[in-house]
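[step 3/7] fold_predict: job queued, chain A
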Amino acid sequence: MLLNIIIIVFLLGMTGWWAKQGFFSGFLHLCLTIVAGAIALSFWEPLVLSFIIYRFPAAAWTIGLIGPFILILFVLRVAMDKLVPMNMHFVPIIDNVGGAACGLISGVLTAGLVIVGLGFLPLGPSFAGYQPLVVTADGRVQPSDSGLWLPVDTFTVGIFEKLSAGPFGTSTPLAEYRPELAMKAALVRLRYDENASIVAVPGDVELSKVYEHQAPIPELPLLVADALGEDFKRADRKVVIVDTVWENKLGRVGTYDADATARIPATQVRLVTRKRSGGRTVITEYPPVAEAKGTREGPRIFRPFDNDRVFAFSTSRDEIGWVFLVPADEEPQYIMVRNLRLSLQGNQVIWDRDTENLVAVVGSVESEAAATGAAASSPPATGTVDDRDGPRTGSVAREIVLTDALPAHISKNNAQGLQYQNDAIMSGSDTVKKGVGSLSSRTRATKIFKPGHKGMVRLELTRDKAQSLLGAARASAARLGGVWLEDTRGDRWEPTAYVVLKGNGDQEISVDAAAPIRSASQLPISSMTGNDKLYLYFLVDRGLTITSYHVGKTTQAVDLRVP
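[step 4/7] structure written:
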């Protein structure tokens, strides 16, 4: 594989170079490499979570490790060359062999840290041919046959783990603070959708509550108990449910995907426990066995992670409970969510050990189709739209329908500014000329992309022209307000796309699910002519009823059920 060749060439180069420089120079460089690596690992998490992840979320963990390591090593190297300008020479065999050994170890540590850091980039499961872990069909993670010929990453992490518990000792050694670091990046990248995010921004994910109970628990529904497996029946086990609340607070940044959905496979979540054994502390990680998700209406839904296609998802302040089975004598310390650490210890964390509450949180088992995010099979629905209540805004809603379809099909060849997935528009902006003749299925786009677990509401607007200059000014001012749909609970849903169907058949299309339209002034209302129609597209949760459409202080009552 490519990565193996690169590593071998790099190590040969480091060995040969420091063999020529001699044992003294090679030894100094090895010491500086160790110091630079230790400092970089020490400041890695604070640096990423306080600064980098808000600016470069996708590459934050890579930049936060490799960047400081290279910078610190460079500064130390320059400073050492100034402090010790002269070399010390030994007999040739010591200089050559000692320098080569120091160069080899320095190269291994450098390559190991770089590979660990690069592994946190949003790549696929395989990184330059290197994929140490795979997910089996039943959802278990196991080692693959695609390992490194020289495991520089595990060796490097092992060295720094020993140093952090010895010469560079701290109250939280690396092995306790970042267990199994060498495999962590590969684990996080094992996701159902390769385009899904692998980072979580602080503040987007928060702890809600922790439930804990000794196994077995006879009060649980039979289907839930069966899904938990034989371990659930063992008296030396306990069930731990960690409730987390997911909310896309920062819009585009990090946690949520381009369609405003966070997809979280079980590989991106780990519960870390601690226990004392034989006078030492033992740290262990456990994957979730199931998800218990809070629904907006009705009981919680229990989804076992029993195959490689099931994942949890969040769309708008969703509460997701991660279900773990752990040994009864181990104490949960924190939960790792996409490399974000959420501590379970402290006065601010609420623990609940009541049987009745835990049973309620677990909920009931959901069907396989819903567990994989499959779309519900229901015919498109059309709702009702009432008259406007409030000032003119330059447009008025005429029709509301449950559909993701474009007003008219377009040719992908005529819209290079749009990105597609099959026949659906994913994102982008462009003005598309009216198609002439028939379009093949390969070149035709027919709809706006919609995830299977979401509903798409399309609202048709027509021009509502003011009769005077004063009225036009008032309409323009009214458009400075927000634009949204509202459901029976008072939740607001902003449009993520719009299409202007012009009188001549051309279409002006804009799609960006990661950046919903916040103000009606962002819509091309003022440029519409009498024959133009404006279509707004709203991604909403299923199982709710839309009751009104708002533009600032202007309201139109609507009625549309989203099954």
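[step 5/7] annotate
Confidence is low (pLDDT under 50) at residues 368-378.
Residues 384-562 form one domain.
exit 0
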